[in-house]
Amino acid sequence: MEFPHELKDLFPNQIVEVRGNADALTLILNNEVDVEKFKKTLKQKFFNLEEKITLFLRHEGKQDFEKFILQ
Which domain of life is it from (predicted)? Predict the structure, then answer.
Protein backbone atom coordinates (compact mmCIF):
# COMPACT_ATOMS: atom_id res chain seq x y z
CA MET A 1 0.00 0.00 0.00
CA GLU A 2 1.35 3.40 -0.94
CA PHE A 3 -0.37 5.21 1.86
CA PRO A 4 -0.11 8.83 0.60
CA HIS A 5 -1.52 8.01 -2.82
CA GLU A 6 -4.24 5.83 -1.35
CA LEU A 7 -5.40 8.65 0.90
CA LYS A 8 -5.65 11.12 -1.97
CA ASP A 9 -7.56 8.55 -4.06
CA LEU A 10 -9.93 7.61 -1.21
CA PHE A 11 -10.75 11.19 -0.24
CA PRO A 12 -10.49 13.28 -3.44
CA ASN A 13 -13.06 15.84 -2.30
CA GLN A 14 -11.55 16.32 1.15
CA ILE A 15 -7.78 16.19 0.50
CA VAL A 16 -6.21 18.84 -1.71
CA GLU A 17 -2.62 17.63 -1.31
CA VAL A 18 -0.51 15.07 0.52
CA ARG A 19 3.08 15.92 1.44
CA GLY A 20 5.70 14.23 3.54
CA ASN A 21 7.91 11.20 3.92
CA ALA A 22 7.99 7.88 5.76
CA ASP A 23 8.07 9.61 9.16
CA ALA A 24 5.08 11.92 8.80
CA LEU A 25 2.56 13.16 6.28
CA THR A 26 0.84 16.50 5.94
CA LEU A 27 -2.70 16.45 4.61
CA ILE A 28 -3.96 19.73 3.23
CA LEU A 29 -7.73 19.66 3.44
CA ASN A 30 -10.45 21.60 1.66
CA ASN A 31 -11.74 24.46 3.80
CA GLU A 32 -15.19 22.83 4.06
CA VAL A 33 -13.88 19.65 5.72
CA ASP A 34 -14.81 19.12 9.37
CA VAL A 35 -11.48 17.98 10.84
CA GLU A 36 -13.03 16.05 13.74
CA LYS A 37 -15.32 14.05 11.44
CA PHE A 38 -12.45 13.46 9.04
CA LYS A 39 -10.26 12.11 11.86
CA LYS A 40 -13.05 9.71 12.92
CA THR A 41 -13.36 8.48 9.34
CA LEU A 42 -9.60 7.88 9.14
CA LYS A 43 -9.64 5.96 12.45
CA GLN A 44 -12.47 3.75 11.22
CA LYS A 45 -10.88 3.06 7.85
CA PHE A 46 -7.28 2.56 9.05
CA PHE A 47 -7.17 0.61 12.29
CA ASN A 48 -4.73 -2.09 13.42
CA LEU A 49 -1.90 -0.72 11.30
CA GLU A 50 1.46 -2.46 11.58
CA GLU A 51 3.19 0.86 12.16
CA LYS A 52 1.77 4.08 13.50
CA ILE A 53 1.48 6.91 11.01
CA THR A 54 1.80 10.54 12.05
CA LEU A 55 -0.38 12.95 10.13
CA PHE A 56 -0.47 16.72 10.27
CA LEU A 57 -3.83 18.09 9.17
CA ARG A 58 -4.45 21.63 8.01
CA HIS A 59 -6.99 23.49 5.95
CA GLU A 60 -6.04 24.97 2.61
CA GLY A 61 -4.84 28.55 2.99
CA LYS A 62 -4.26 28.29 6.75
CA GLN A 63 -1.02 27.89 8.65
CA ASP A 64 -2.19 25.99 11.76
CA PHE A 65 -1.57 22.24 11.84
CA GLU A 66 -3.19 19.59 13.97
CA LYS A 67 -1.14 16.49 14.79
CA PHE A 68 -2.98 13.18 14.47
CA ILE A 69 -1.61 9.66 14.89
CA LEU A 70 -3.12 6.60 13.23
CA GLN A 71 -2.30 3.31 14.96
Answer: Bacteria
Is the distance from CB of 57 to CB of 68 less than 8 angstroms? yes
pTM, full prediction = 0.86
Where is 14: in which H helix or E strand?
none
Alpha-carbon distance 2 to 65, whole Å? 23
Q: Can you tell me the distance from the alpha carbon of 12 to that of 52, in angstroms, rounded to the nearest whole number?
A: 23
**C-alpha–C-alpha distance, residues 36 and 3, integer Å:** 20
Could you read off the pLDDT of 21-43 as tens digits, one per residue? 878 899 999 999 999 999 999 99
**CA dist list (Å): 27 to 21, 34, 41, 42:** 12, 13, 14, 12
Domain locations along the chain: 3-70
DSSP, collapsed to helix, strand or coil, labels residue 41 as helix
